[in-house]
Predict the 3D structure of the following.
Amino acid sequence: MTNSAPAIELKNLSKSFGAMQALNNLSLRIEQGVFLTLLGPSGCGKSTILRLIAGFMAPSNGKVLVGGHDITRTPAHTRPVKMVFQDYALFPHMNIAANIGFGCEMLGMPRGQIVRRCNELLDLIRLPDIASRYPDELSGGQRQRVALARALAPDPEALLLDEPLGALDLRLRRQMQQELRAIQRTTGKTFVFVTHDQEEAMSMSDTIVVMKDGSIEQIDSPEAIYQRPASAFVASFVGSANLVPAKVRGRDAETLTLYLYGQEWRVPLERVTSPVTPDVGDSATVVIRPDAFHIGIGRADIDLQLSGHLEERTYLGSRQNLKLRAADGEVAQIELSATEVASEGEALDVHCNTERVAILAGAADPI
Amino acid sequence: MHLQRLVLPTYFWLFVLYLFTPLMVIAVMGFRDSNFVAFPINKWTTDWYHEILFDRDIQSSLWLSLRIAVVSTAISIVVGLPTAFLVARTKGVLRGALISILLLPAFLPVIVSAISLRIFAGKIGLETGMLAIALGHAVASMPFVVIMVLTRIDSMNRNLVDAAQNLGADPIIVLTRIVLPYLSPALFGAFLFSMLLSFEDFVRSFFLGGFDQTFPVLLYSRLRFGFDPGLAAVSTIVLIATTCLGLFAERILRGRRARSSQQKKGSPTND
Amino acid sequence: MTRFLVYSRRFALYRGFNTLYMTSPATRFLMVALLPLVWILLANVAPLAQMVEISFRDTYPLQPGEEGSYSLQHYAGFFEKPLYFRAFLRSFVFATLVTFATLVVVFPVAFYISKAAPKSQRARLLLLVVAPFWVSEIIRSFAWIVMLANRGAVNSFFGWFGMPGVPYELLYNNFSLSIGVIYLASLYMLLPLYSAIERIDDNLLEAAANLGASTRRRITRIILPLSLPGIVAGCTLVFLLTVGLFAMPVLLGGPSNTLFPAIIAQIFHKAGASWPQGSAYSILLTIAALIYVGLFIALAGRRGRGAKP
């Protein structure tokens, strides 16, 4: 195995179930030692990718490579990638040691070595005393960690994790996220993690792949996904965002002039994050994160300025939704950070900096 | 509210009396010191319970019934297991059709099933006797074996098979290390159930039997042509044995089922 | 075990099985399905088909060199022989009456175990009632012979009380047969009834009581309609069991009112030449029983739907 080869590579992968197209000509390189997350709503094909890599099903088209070797036709039980299942799938009739040792046993490892490997992993997941217990005697969190240890035991090329934290409650989930990340760093393994929870994806990943309808919408670091979404879908799926429809009124070498909220606004061209830059006369969508809006008067020359009468305020925890009626009667719905103070029935000024917005070509589909 | 508090419990216990009195009476009859089955019992003896075990005909009929039970159970499990796998992987209309054909022997009038098997045995040149009876019993118990195993397969988490495969288990290891251990309570229950069905069957043994009589057939002919308290004694022994086995099978099928469903839900508790 | 299996990987047979299994979905299907399909064909389908075929033959088994000929004579003959036809009708009437009687006898028991008894006791009570399930038909017949004979337990009990006219003729008539068959069939009725009634939501009963329904109305308006699937399943099972019963009617029933299965057995046990006749009568019994049960299920289904509004 050469170091330059990606841990996993998918080439033009397609999979259909009858008339349903689960994956549509999808290609992806996953570098060695990376924590990569496949993020998307249910039914977007992210679990299908894992099952294709693991070999539980065959692709309709395309190739799967692990460590540079084509394994598309290799039977599932000889593939060097191991999986952590959402329901853990621990063998109920075997104790924890037997569960963790199963993979090594299948490799024909001598018994003493299996026991040593098993103890190593029990230490790694910080549950050294449960070797002789049975899965139904463990708590959800413990089972989750055992499932992880079982998959790590045969020293796989990569680990596939199919929503492994989905069954845990919120507090335990946060704790396991950190632990999982720490284990990934210590072992240096490639993790391919599937989730529909964008916060989870944000907090754990080196790279996030946002998926929709069997295709990749964007591949990027968590920061870039949040700040420079490539599409309205990504913008609204990852974090909350105001998606403001706009028209392009002018364009020069460095700026776009947009028309939104009944006014013109000049924004640097580098804020365009969609693959295509909109031209004069095109419609566009301005993505404004709640934390980009501030109450008060901004700098008149560069900031977007909204003024009006606050008709309604809905408190959303960390955010709030304001319904602002301008003097000309136009209504703007904006979402901003809850730390900014506003009260219903008063006049209100809100501004937004050009640095904190993203411009997308085209009108946003309602989601 | 008298209905709930008084009438229903009384009725229930009368029904229990109806169920158990005849069995008690037959057990008691085995202690009568006389050559005739009759009441009242004035002299008591335990001789019948001793002697009956040395009656050659009864001994050999019990032995034959037991051997037939073992053979027919072996057949119905060896065939029933793949049949359950087959049904489990079939879907939709095909599954319904398959199940109906499988259950057919359980819904046919017993006498019709027995006669059709007798004719068929003649057609393929299978002589009446032990093997014919064992095959006939296997036909009869197959539906129950398949349904028991199928229920267990349907409750199995399919990810277990994927997980084992993923960890390097080839088909044979998946079968022997994962699937069969998971199915073992159902298989054991089906084993006992099939043994009991075979051991107690009368009609099929009656039509498919040769010169040697199984225990129920022997009992039947003695009931028609003369019997003594000894027959009551041996019946008592058999009914106690089968009831214990039956309750044991019930417990295995029930107890493990509860445990597995608990495991399947896997209530996520916090540590 | 696994060590052995992992070791045996190097053998051709083991590898051959695995390779074959993984070759394609078709071979995988074949490996699983071959034995079951052969069995189903030989054990479930062929004997019945064979019986149908034989029922149209004039004679069977054939003598060496004899050419078989086909006709409907055995079916036609059935309707011309009042002895057989009457036994056939008697069987259906008897099975219907016994099924109904079993329902009436067992329903309160099922209701008591599943709803009325204290919750903590229900499992134990069910076990108690299910326990005699494993006693065979012949031993049960024997038990009732001992109970009902002229010098049996019941007559002895009555005599002890000085009842006049003891012994009563209790055995070898329709009374003893009915008692025995209900005894045999009650569990086939109990289990479906129990699971159907148990499934009825307690809240429904409380809601009905809350709306002012008396106990009787709660039973007739809520429990009965909602346990209909259990009633249908139980009656179907009991009917099919009873209509094909052979040994118990011979042992407990009277000599004058033979039931149809005994007739079939009689015909069958005569010379080989009457196998076709026995087959024809078996098929008549099967088809009539299935149609009868089918009609019952359809009728009950319509009733069940009609009762809802």
